[in-house]
Write a structure and sequence with these properties.
Strand content: under 5%
Low-confidence stretches: none
Helix content: over 70%
Number of strands: 0
Structural class: mainly alpha
Number of helices: 4
Radius of gyration: 23 Å
Length: 109
Amino acid sequence: MFLLLASILFLTIGVAVVAALLGSSFFQFMSTDVEELSPLEKKCQQIANEGYKMHVIYPAANPEDLPESDMKRILYLDDMWMKECVAVLPADSIIKIANNVERDITYGE
């Protein structure tokens, strides 16, 4: 009888520890998405968001098939993205920005 109670007690403690660790990991994961961006990263995030919105409007279109103003806007944004972001920022910043783009657009930010 004592062994059964001890086993249940250890199982309960084990489940509580695992739940606490999972909860802690979840909150840590959720809080890492809110880290502050540098001014350049913020600018690049805006460029990426605008470019993504344009590419969503015209997902498979060739630039020549677009209205002229939209074609110029997409080419301008792509040029800014390459020159001011990809060429300057480290790869981890670019990946972070790219991962944020779809999430931001999806959640309406």
